[in-house]
Structures are given as C-alpha cells and as structure tokens.
Amino acid sequence: MASSERKIVHVDMDAFYASVEQRDRPELRGLPVVVAWTGPRSVVCAASYEARRFGVHSAMSAARARRLCPQAVCVPPDFERYRAVSRQVRGIFARHTDLIEPLSLDEAYLDVTVNKQGLASATEVAQVIRAQIRAETGLTASAGVAPNKFLAKIASDWNKPDGLFVIKPSRVQAFLLDLPVRKVPGVGKVMQARLLELGIHTVGELRQHAAAELELHFGRYGYRLYELARGIDERAVEPDLAVRQVSAETTFEIDLRLDQLDETLRRLSAKAWEQARRKGVAGRTVVLKLKTDRFRSLTRSHTQPQPVATPQELAELALGMRERVTLPPYTLYRLAGVGLSNFAGMDEAQRQPDMFA
Fold it and tell me: Using CA atoms, how far apart are residues 283 and 122, in angstroms rounded to an integer?
C-alpha cells in the first residue's frame, strides 16, 4: 500500500515517567520533577514540563540538571510501574487496530487505515484514543495523524503537551515547505550545520537539491533526505518489531584523538542506556564504534555473562575498549558511537543487586 493511502497515528505520552510520578504522588504536581538515580554520574531518565522550562531533558547528567534547576525534585525511576502503565495504554491501542509498532514504553505508531471501531477518520481515532488514555490512566498523550510514519511523528510533537495535529495528504507539500530541516528525523546538530553550509535551512530549500548531489554530500542518507523532503516514506507499521540493538553516535565538528573522548563516550553511553530503558531491554554486549578522519571504520565489542547493570558500567566498558584499538595514538577520529545488543528482558537485569547503585 502506498503511503498516501495509509492513515498513520503516532501517539506519544507526555513526559511519561515524570507524569506517572506526578499522578501517583499529588504533592509533586506543579513542581519541577526530575526522574533520575542518585549519584555523581547519574543521568536524567525524564523531566516534567515544569523542569523542562529550565532546560532539563532526558539523557542529561543529573548533576547538570540540578545546576539548571536547583529546586527540582529528584525521584528514582520505577520502571515496573512505567511498564504497567505502558501495557495499559497498549491495550487501548489494541481496541482500535492490531497494527501497532511500539517505539518505546511511551510512544508507538498505529496504522488505522482500517480501524476496529469503524470510526469515520484517523483524526477521530486519535481523539478517542487520547480521551481513553486520559480517562483510564489519568495521563495525557499527544498524537500526530498523517499519511506516513515520518510525518506522523513530526505531527505528534507539534502541539505538545496534550495536543493533536493532523497533516492531510493534500497539505503535505505545503506543510513541508517552511519546515526547519532540524525537524527531519536523523538531522542532528552536526548534520544541520552541514546543511546550513549548503544554504539549506528549510525542507523547501532541501527539495531544490537533486538526489545525486545529496548522496555526494551525505552518502546513503542523502537519498533518504531527498525522499523525506518530498514527504515520501513507504515504511509500513511493523507490529512487535524486535529490538536488536540500541546505539548513540556523534560526528565531531573537530577531529579528536582517542584519549580526548572520555566525556563524549560517557554522554553517548547515557543516551544508549536511556534508549534501552525506554524499550524495556538490557544488553549483554557493548559495542564501541569509531571512524577515523580518513573514514576508516572500526568496531570493538565486549560480551559479558550478565546484562549491563547501570549507565556508569556501560560507560566504563566503552571507555575500556579503547585499549583494544591498535592504531597509533596520534590518529584522529571524526565519529564515535556506543551501542548495546544481545538483549535480555529488563526484569532479568533488575534482579541484579546493583541495578540502581
């Protein structure tokens, strides 16, 4: 089925972990809540909208969050409760469609091209789902409705929190015209800077560049940019898509030596750990990815008997694998990444006594 014929809803719970804490502890309502472990190297799992106003966000170090918002109330995460609420929300989705692709505990794609309740439109389906989530969980969700996954995900973030935004097929091209390129999935700060060097600020400007030119600058992702600039995304909603790996990587603005990557690898480890947490998995295999200034790619991996228990352990394992890189110490690197794979269920990892150390 062509994407123009699909009706896709992306549902994203609003500040999920923090909202669950505020729901269950009325004294936290209206306060800047940060869900994080204690400890000097802890990372933020979630922040309430009151805390986000101070610049606090997930995967940030808890120490920095405290500096940005000294009055924040820090709460340790309770993933068993979050998973229970996630299952409840998933049950609501299942009343409307069997085509559900979870991205994490708090967001999912739904294909409602045909819906079980016989509702007249995808917009009505999204409205009913949001109302049912509010009535049955006491939480709010934002939703985006569009002809494909790319646009639906952008739309769900348009009127957050507790919002709904619809991109009709007839309005796709007009919507994309002035959309900042930073809104395109995969365009991070480094990619955005490279696009700006080409004079590309908006998707409309991106659309003026040929596929071959974009591939010359950005490799395979260049053709993906060419398609997205035209609103093309033929990916189907894939129910029960197994999570095989989570990872985070960054391309440096200035090439760095291996011994200069400590802070970067800790930050990437925090991001990869947060992805694993959100997806409810724990990995036994840690992967370190590097790319030199001459575009030579290297990977090193380490597998252990038990799943990695903390973000700090993940960071230390990633840092330790640098010793297995045999290139000269003066070698410069343009990219680094940290990944987790070989998953066990999160419940198995939580049985370890130092899980929240």
Answer: 37
